[in-house]
Amino acid sequence: MDYVLVIDFGGQYAHLITRRVRDLGVYSEFLNAESASLEEIREAIKGARGVILSGGPSSVWEGKHDHIARIVVEEGKPALGICYGHQLLAKILGGSVGKAVKPEFGPTIVSVKAREDPLFNGIPETIVAWMSHNDAVLQPPQEAVVLASSHGSPIAAFRHGAVYGVQWHPEVVHTMFGLKLIENWLKLVGVERNWRPEHMVDKLVESIREAVGDGIAIAAVSGGVDSTTASLLAKKALGDRLIPVMIDHGLHPAGEPWRSVELLKKIGLEVEVVDASNRFFEALRGLTDPEEKRRVFGRVYAEILEEVAESHKAEYLVQGTIYPDIIESGRRPGASVIKTHHNVAGLPGEFKLKLVEPLKWFYKDEVRRIAFKLGVPKEIIKRQPIPGPALAVRVEGEVTREKVEVVRKADAIVREEIESEGLHDRLWQYFAVLLNSKATGVKGDNRVYGHVIAVRAVLSVDAMTASVARLQWDLLERISSRITSEVPGVVRVVYDITSKPPATIEWE
Ligand code: XMP
Question: What is the pTM of this model?
């Protein structure tokens, strides 16, 4: 299949490049320059229709990635360098890179000098572009044409044969005409824009078949869209050699896991439910640190999966890990660990099962399209994501059965009220969190000192960023009064009005 390769040099926005190219209907793969072997990189470059070199924190002085840029140029691939990638390509082609006269961070005015160049088709002469650099291209490569400039980077864009470089970040929404520039570049590459995530079904099934051979796999299902989709793909690949397993850890939201078990049965996934709530509460007892809680949850979860696998003589574990999980767990070298997602970094190093993660390069909305193609019921496709450790990360501090019951009841009220307003389809997630602090209230004629519930509702496309849902006051007041009157021990309800970033979606 035709693809555009994105080589990631550790840039903050590198993953967005792949995202944009895919949104434009071209399959794109992402390869990290530090973790991939040179052979892998060479093969991927050779096979690609075009290559994008991302930004990154290094300086081209260090010479760390010269060999990679050289392969791109020697292979004669159409290329687009962004920020660090722009400087790297300029250097390899004989230009010079040095400290910028004026480092540029944030919105920057760029003057397009060569509007006749197809890269700038439909883009005005002056744009505001997102920049983030200390170094700059000071001398263009010989025979290169300078296409744009800004105050701090006189050579803000150049063309040298099939190679383009831009100092700014077209992948960032704050850059005017950024998507247009990427679209223009894809036209120059000549790649057809007909890729859709749902076209990947056969390839994904085949890759699972290849990975598992004639082995046996268990699949960890939660009832969410990711694990259901991964399990269905594995079911297609392996038939009866796939055993879907649901671990009942006692931390599910109200009505679960049984509602999911019923739904999954309808689409041919007969799930084995393992009752393990005592083990989880026991292991979580006394733990208050969020990362510690996730790690311990992950360890117990992994132990149980290993036991179940052993009982079925399975060597493989199919998981619904998706791309944001990988990025946020810091599996990509150079990216800092934001949270330990139990289904990724939480697995112990000595984990015995071999992982099969067919969805690990897809964003949530892409997974939803694949799910739709596979006939997954709408209720599952539209279901809001639940973190792997479920309500354990929605109870701040120590997790006890009593506290889980409080947050479960409050959460059910939040869901009921929001869904009865028909807002379900419009929101990414909405839930309740039990805070670690207590507050004073008056119930009847008595002063009480009780729990505080935070309500969170956000809008998002792929959970990488999120904005606060502006719920109506009437709705919020109804939620608050129902929680304080129906959930014993709760005296106060607050609404979280923080976007991501700077906050994350979950509280822990
Ligand atoms: P944050 O809180 O990092 O969440 O902004 C981003 C998305 O990921 C979900 N999430 C998790 N999913 N295991 C998961 O499988 C986890 O440990 C986990 N923590 C957060 C979160 O609900 C949101 O949709």
Answer: 0.78
